[in-house]
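Aim 2 progress update. The chain analyzed this quarter is reproduced below.
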Amino acid sequence: MAEIPQILADAERKMDGTLEHAKEEFGGIRTGRAHPAMFAKITAEYYGVQTPLQQLATFQVPEARTVLIQPFDPGAMKAIEKAIRDSDLGVNPANDGHVIRLVLPSLTEERRKEYVKLARHKAEEERVAIRNVRRHAVDAIQKKLKAKEIGEDDARGAEKKLDEITKKRVEKIDELLKSKEAELSEV
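Predicted structure tokens:
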């Protein structure tokens, strides 16, 4: 019996990890406003190693659609510019020798629809990941039941609790998606 709370706790921890991943994924989808999370997935070649931009520079957002990138090492400026230019952000960096300035263009209606579609796809991937965690936990509970380590009532109760945990996490994914869609539809 002592293992059921452990199975549920593990499932809950994994589902929370999936939620955090969803937040990161949604943060990486560009909206009309500038924010440092847009650069989370971009890496630049720095001394022969692909390095995340957050490790190479600081990011400031002085205006809604402007980002200032201050490299820690001025020698990394060209690599950072190239990484941004090659990314899917669709911006052209301007370098004044000290900082890199990005002015984000307004999103077209077509681009907004693409981003909403991307957000929905990512949300579905996260829901599938949560359901997979649930399925593995149910399998573990069923193994305990077959091995006669727990009774049917305990197994049913554990699965009911697991369903509640799963439902809450899926609802949170849906809330994240809804807020991202609202953010994307703002002009």
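Residues 3-27+108-185 form a domain with the Topoisomerase I; Chain A, domain 4 fold (CATH 1.10.132.20). The first strand starts at residue 43 and ends at 46. These observations will guide the mutagenesis experiments scheduled for the next reporting period.
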